[in-house]
Structure formats: C-alpha cells, structure tokens
Structure to design on (223 residues):
C-alpha cells in the first residue's frame, strides 16, 4: 500500500529554523518532491531528492534517506511569507506521484 | 510567460448538473493531470494524459470525464454521477514522466454544489 505521514500543523517563530518530517511507504520509489502551497493557491515546486543526503537551495534544504523511508524539509531564517502548507510527495515512477496531506506551518512574529 | 491557466476560479453547480473545468497550458508539456484536493487529505489523481488523444484513469476517476484533443488543453467534466463533487480541483502539467522536473500547477478551481 501507499502511506505518507507528516505532522498536520507546526508553529515557529520568525527568524527561526523549522524541520518538517515525512515518512513514507510506497510500492516503488524513484524520488521525493516537496511542494509549498499557500492557502487557496496552487502548489509550487520546492525540491526533488533522488539520492540519499541533504540538498541545499537557499533558505530551504531537503534531506532523503531511502533505506529509512524518511525525508525532511528544513527552512531557515523563517519569514512570515513561509506560512503555508508543505506537501511531501514520493514519486513512484511513470505518472504516479503520491501526495501527503501536507503540514500547515504557521510563522509567528 | 509560459504557464497553466484554469478557469473559472470559483464554480457553483446545482445537483444533477454536469460542469466542465477548463485547463490550458502553453509550456509545451506533453503530460497533463487533474487532481482533487479535500481538506485534510493529499491530492488525489483523477485522470492524466501522456499525449494528445490518450488519457488514463487515476485513483478516483468515477464520475469524471476528460478529453485531450489538443496538446494545450485538458478539460475535466464533473458529471452528475460524482456523488461528492465539492472540492478544490487542480490541473497540472509536466514534461513526460515528470522525473525531476516536477509539476507546474494551475491556480485551481473551487467547485461547490448548491
């Protein structure tokens, strides 16, 4: 079966660092996407990990451990505009991407 | 600028009516998708199309229909057979197979049954 677990909500303070965890169990795995989605808007691409390890892109970094079925998204120097939902999405190949329910992040002043 | 356009942004439907949601892209992407998003749930795949005149059912295709007569266009019809159509509908496109390119999403259509 397919299962993706990520926390429903998180709260952090402006300027801080937050880590959003995701564990997954999928039949087949080619890589893992993270998307950001502001309320009522379209998801936007943040990162894609294929190999184990940490990939850094500005204030955002994403980590993958394929053997553990685990990924996290790390957001540094949080800004108010980072308040959004973050979707963990394993790509199982072909045209199949499985989306988690998302983690709603609230950034407070 | 290239992108993907969905219309309308908000749509109200009476029970028993069919409605069609528009999706157009000018990214020259081969693959297009329709997802449904409900509160507290992940995006669920309704239909996808790899190429013109071809489309495949996703996980929740019942009560929906699509067509792909042009590369740029992938409209979704929500039929009266769909028992719970109120949701946020997202259209997406990608280079074939997505790979590490990810999806480009439209801004969505919020459908409400009244």
């Amino acid at each position: 079966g397919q299962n993706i677990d990520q926390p429903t909500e998180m709260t952090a303070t402006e300027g801080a660092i937050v880590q959003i965890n995701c564990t997954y169990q999928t039949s087949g795995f080619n890589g893992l996407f993270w998307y950001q989605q502001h309320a009522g808007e379209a998801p936007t691409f943040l990162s894609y990990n294929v190999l184990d390890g940490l990939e850094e892109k500005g204030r955002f970094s994403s980590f993958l451990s394929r053997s553990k079925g685990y990924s996290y998204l790390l957001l540094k120097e949080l800004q108010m505009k980072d308040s959004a939902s973050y979707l963990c999405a394993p790509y199982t190949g072909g045209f199949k991407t499985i989306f988690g329910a998302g983690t709603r992040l609230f950034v407070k002043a | 600028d290239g992108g993907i356009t969905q219309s309308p942004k908000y749509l109200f439907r009476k029970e028993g009516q069919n409605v069609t949601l528009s999706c157009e892209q000018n990214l020259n992407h081969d693959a297009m998708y329709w997802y449904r998003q409900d509160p507290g749930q992940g995006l669920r795949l309704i239909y996808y199309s790899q190429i013109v005149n071809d489309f495949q059912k996703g996980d929740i295709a019942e009560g929906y229909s699509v067509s792909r007569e042009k590369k740029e266009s992938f409209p979704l019809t929500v039929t009266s057979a769909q028992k719970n159509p109120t949701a946020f509908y997202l259209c997406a496109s990608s280079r074939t197979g997505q790979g590490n390119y990810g999806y480009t999403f439209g801004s969505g259509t919020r459908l409400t049954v009244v």
The mean pLDDT of chain B is 92. The longest strand of chain B covers residues 44-51. Chain B touches chain A through 26 residues (CB under 8 Å). Chain B has no helices and eleven strands.
